[in-house]
Amino acid sequence: MTYGQGRTYKKVEVIGVSGAGIEDAIQQAVTRAQQSLEKLSWFEVQDIRGHIGDDGKVNEYQVVLKVAFELK
Amino acid sequence: MTYGQGRTYKKVEVIGVSGAGIEDAIQQAVTRAQQSLEKLSWFEVQDIRGHIGDDGKVNEYQVVLKVAFELK
Amino acid sequence: MTYGQGRTYKKVEVIGVSGAGIEDAIQQAVTRAQQSLEKLSWFEVQDIRGHIGDDGKVNEYQVVLKVAFELK
Amino acid sequence: MTYGQGRTYKKVEVIGVSGAGIEDAIQQAVTRAQQSLEKLSWFEVQDIRGHIGDDGKVNEYQVVLKVAFELK
Amino acid sequence: MTYGQGRTYKKVEVIGVSGAGIEDAIQQAVTRAQQSLEKLSWFEVQDIRGHIGDDGKVNEYQVVLKVAFELK
Amino acid sequence: MTYGQGRTYKKVEVIGVSGAGIEDAIQQAVTRAQQSLEKLSWFEVQDIRGHIGDDGKVNEYQVVLKVAFELK
Amino acid sequence: MTYGQGRTYKKVEVIGVSGAGIEDAIQQAVTRAQQSLEKLSWFEVQDIRGHIGDDGKVNEYQVVLKVAFELK
Amino acid sequence: MTYGQGRTYKKVEVIGVSGAGIEDAIQQAVTRAQQSLEKLSWFEVQDIRGHIGDDGKVNEYQVVLKVAFELK
Amino acid sequence: MTYGQGRTYKKVEVIGVSGAGIEDAIQQAVTRAQQSLEKLSWFEVQDIRGHIGDDGKVNEYQVVLKVAFELK
Amino acid sequence: MTYGQGRTYKKVEVIGVSGAGIEDAIQQAVTRAQQSLEKLSWFEVQDIRGHIGDDGKVNEYQVVLKVAFELK
Amino acid sequence: MTYGQGRTYKKVEVIGVSGAGIEDAIQQAVTRAQQSLEKLSWFEVQDIRGHIGDDGKVNEYQVVLKVAFELK
Amino acid sequence: MTYGQGRTYKKVEVIGVSGAGIEDAIQQAVTRAQQSLEKLSWFEVQDIRGHIGDDGKVNEYQVVLKVAFELK
Predict the structure, then answer these.
(1) Is C56 within 8 Å of L43 when comparing Cβ atoms?
(2) Strand partners, K63
């Protein structure tokens, strides 16, 4: 990549869900998004939410993020 | 669906337009988006706008919303 | 187009990069996005950023924008 | 009420859910909140969301709102 | 109107109040604003609020909106 | 005023400047705005800024606020 | 208090009203909230508004704030 | 739960503090809030902050979050 | 102008449209607004948008801005 | 100063704390910041917070502000 | 520290980068910032981003945060 | 640079002023900031404002931006 050359990126909003933690939920979304999109370059977290089970434990983290990739 | 299991959702931004009202504009966008995307799960309203006719009547509502669906 | 008739638009987030300036970065993104999407109708700038070269000159502008098109 | 006299209000965040529309979801939340709180004075909509059924129809509106009442 | 030609619009912030619902409050503001301003072109909702009566019913909707018109 | 009856308000953005303090800057703007507009009903502070003199003292407060009045 | 030990705080949104000024409206809300809640630890101003009397004078300040206290 | 049926939820703002990490601070707040409120359904992170000890180590994470539960 | 003396400014929201670029759209709005308002002192850009022609070229820039002037 | 000539300003974020009120907390930050920075030109309030003593009185105001000065 | 006494804090914006996780990226920034600034008191997370490697794994977390310290 | 390795960046807020246009005001701030800081890596535009001369012409652009550099 040379700075200054015309390039275009696209950002797509996804939500990764995982019972294991915030980083794991991010990786879940990145892995799944990469299957149907191009190779991803970076992500930006938009929101962190989660579900609370009947036992009062956080049983999943839901991380809303944007993933970006170059439109070649 | 079991909480805590890895899942990924995608959110897409659409604008529904209708002369009949806000709820109708939402349904318009949901119906149309479902034709080219997966079965949708939920929506989130981002903005409500509209056009005003020559007679000073609101002649259409434009509702910007995000619709979400699971990436299976 | 007749106001009040049911229509749906989609918005997609892209980033245009150009060494020539902000307007050029916008056009870069619009031109590239139009190749893989429908004919675009309008854009909305979200963010203006850029890279600074070793000589202290802005060597590229990165403009984050949303482009919109009708889902026919 | 006389303007300028010391008074205090409290705001509480609630979510009303209804299948019938946005105004109905607001009324649902107001009616229920009034049962466990003081007489309410006003509301402010924070967010409008909803669920989409298997048939592609919006089957419920979820309106996040703040309701306010005087602490007498 | 030809795209690209120099034009200027003005936006004014108004609040429409109605007991009948959100769309009606919007129309109320549009109708009244048009009397003292130019012919209006579009509106953008900024906030939705309302008052709650002694019987626990929403007795009016207050919709804050911007209305826009061309400065000819 | 009867709740539920159609009414319309207008909001105008003004900046009050005073060397005496924040409340005084608000009153400055309200007093001046009332001369060219209708009788004002309420205000909402948007921003508080100020200028710093050569002696390192805040020598004026600039309060950006919206003032509202009924369009009768 | 020892840093790092598990603790939980709660935040509650209140509006203090006073004819005397912004600081007085804050104190009004803090004093009243402390009667029905735990001992408060801190506050955060959310919004500053007010009412304007028939004589064009600000006759009350309405300060929206969050007050916080520890859930022991 | 059947979609479309009238329901109401309440959201409460709490701050969980823990020396062990972000997820632990969330769980701390959820566990404590559940003692004085109803069974919680979900949470939304609002802010992540923390304290830094004399040795330059982050010695606690303070996570501001909203927890939600149904008003039955 | 002497700092600390009571003064009041008004801000008005306008949209300048030009096919030539962002700076030109700003100047378009400033020039037109000055015809019906007082001499303007400064502007603040709120939003940058634009229209895309059938040939995929940005054919106009629409810059939403606030212009301010002193209420003498 | 001549308008249009190249100049650069820097903004720094500081928090002034005072038991005496909001204006005093602003002056506290301005006075202290001026000791280690250049002569300051203006300030912008970002946030107003405070601490509440055991007696339920606001015992200090904490005003987060940005101060600006020219990089000569 | 006695509440109510005049004090001033400064906030500085830094970005910590780490391959190990979000908490580690925060600590990275705090440790480095402390070397060139005063002893830090607290931090506030502004944004969480990261880079995605060729293998589709998140290979670094970039946490934008503000760190604060007292100006003695 | 190797991704995943611990690094820290700092962001500083500056305002570039130029009579020639938005890109020129950005370059003005970057050039001046680089004299007193480390070699800069990127910038992010926060706000675009400007001054209007007596002849109704925009006579300077004021671009508020953040510039970032690595703390080596």
Answers:
(1) no
(2) K16, K48
